[in-house]
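Today's session is about reading a structure prediction critically. Students often jump straight to the picture, but the first step is always the sequence itself: look for stretches that repeat, for charged clusters, for runs of hydrophobic residues. Only then move on to the predicted structure, which in these notes is written as discrete structure tokens rather than atom positions. Here is the chain we will use throughout the hour.
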Amino acid sequence: MLHRDISAGNMMILPRIEDQDGRKCVTWRGVLIDWELAKYVPKDDSAQRAPQPERTVRTCFMSLMYVVHLDRRIQIADELESFLHVLFYHGVRYLRNSLGSCATAFIVTYFNTFLLGPRGDQLCSHVKTTDVTGGAST
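Below is the predicted structure for this chain, in token form.
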């Protein structure tokens, strides 16, 4: 099953109070929501292929390969890269890091800035493209 719309808004972290050795403690569980665009993917790659979702969502958490290649089917690697972008976003936004006062500008540049492609479509920012293809954040 491919979700096909992984984003920060489609993830919830739910607390649960549990009893462990007579003590109350909080455990956290992640839940992926908003499955309207999800599709079953057959094991044998038969004719039952999942159609592509409409590209009306922002590109900030989409995989680089999916954004660049419009006709390509979403694959598991695209879903995993989307999870990575969500994790990276929340890490920069909420965890102590070396960006300091530049964190907001970095988030805007990396996630919310996009380029227009030759067909007028949205492409990932230069920073995101460089980071994904180079393997390190600049």
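Discussion point for the tutorial: The chain is about 30% helix and 20% strand.
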